[in-house]
Amino acid sequence: MVQPHPFGAWSLLPPLLAIMLAILTRRAMLSLFLGVWSGGVLIAWDNAESTLDIAAVPFVGVIEAFGWIVASFGDDTFHAEIITFTFLLGAGIALTWRMGGSIAIARAATDRVDSHRRVGLAAWLLGLVWFFDDYANTAIVGSAVKDIADEMRMSREKLAYILDSTAAPVATFGISSWVAFQISLIQNEYQNIDGETPSAVATFLWSIPFNVYCLLALLMVLIVVLTRRDFGEMLTAETRARDTGNVTREDATPLQSMKEDLGEPVVEDPLVRTFVVPVAALVIVVMGGAAITGFQAAGVTPAEAASGGDALITLVDNVDFTGALVWGSFAMVATAVAMSLYYGVMDLEESMETVLDGFGIMLTAVSILVLAWSIGTVAEVLETGRYVTDIAAGFITPTLLPVVVLLTTAVIAFSIGTSWGTMGIVTPVAIPLAYEVGNGSPEVLALAVGTVFSGAIFGDHCSPISDTTILSSTFAGADHIDHVRTQLYYAVTVISVALMVYLAYGLFGLSPFVLVPLGAVLLVGLVYALSELDAGRKNVSAKPFAGAQRREASGDD
User: What DSSP state is assigned to residue 4?
Assistant: First the structure.
């Protein structure tokens, strides 16, 4: 029996208010705070017992809001670690910038990465390589590519889209904290099912071809990069960058700007190693630290892990990725400071001032992250996810199972801004439903799992209160709301094709190995059609950078 929901449709108000205000006003922090405050108002109103209490509701709402905001800093170790990682990474990036490492990398790469297309392709390939964590993915790839992208006149919105649409999707397929979390969710639900089930690992592996949105999102980036075709607000942004050289909108507010916040590099002839070595320290310590924590906590040997099976899954499940990110980012800072002193680029005092400046460039991103987490807490208190899930459960049939699960998951992820939180909400409902609807079929269970992951990532991509979306804007140096608005067109295109794939599966039972390639062909056709249609409407080229090589793109004579 479904329990009555304490707030009903009102539980949707805080996240939807924050999202709509953010998109309409382009003021992310103000919009998020008002969303959190509205949740406090709902709680205060529900607890009011007298006229005096009702009159005090707006003020009590402020108290509730700041309680959630303060809790987001320290009550959750994960949040504290991500904040520390973000600040330290900002310091590392600031040090490499002041030493000229970022510019040296850009100069070294321009002989090979000499066109708009190649910059996009390099960012996409790097995004596939750094599969172990989505946060590290956006930070490392964004830092490595941003200056080259600026030289090729790639809009910051386009770079943010590439970062965002490779980071989380690719992390759902590789050896990462995402995969460990996904498998743990499946295993938890299988323990509650009174009947025979496949292994959680087998279900996860079979869910990969059903994770249609993530597969097509990765392909969409490649299609857009190779064809150089854009549509929607991205076409406007790319045309602006090509024609004017302005990689951001004139009155945009990027979440970080190196030149404005840190000034020019302090050396005229920078060395590539001043970028490569600190980043290598970050990667080595993160990977090494993750492996050490996994082996220690899981109690398995390297030989057992190498053999695969349950030992490998136990290892991945016990890896402390966020802790490793903190250690790695500190290693990056320490290495950069040591190199700065060794090469005489800056003395110790200047290095420490640069570290503090690096903290400063991340302040806006961290503020938005904290408010986004606070919105997630509000949604948890108001049981927003359960409200949406309870409504959707009444519509599920065998044919509509993937479509309903996808849309439900997407709405929840869009509303609360977290893929992991959404998966945690929906998986306990989707797996038992799939088991019942599919009579215990392993394929139907895998379908449900893949669909949950797809919907969660899509909603996360579209939501301005998503942490991964915020970090993609940060490390691309883009205006956050501009990133959300431009990416929305592409994400909706991909999810539309994914819906057709899921509906075709429900109606005809065709294999995903047939349907996903057909979806890919449809996606290519849509990119061509929508780019031509939008270009005609705006009277611009559908391929702003067709044929643009280094000299043309950079404005050189």
Answer: P
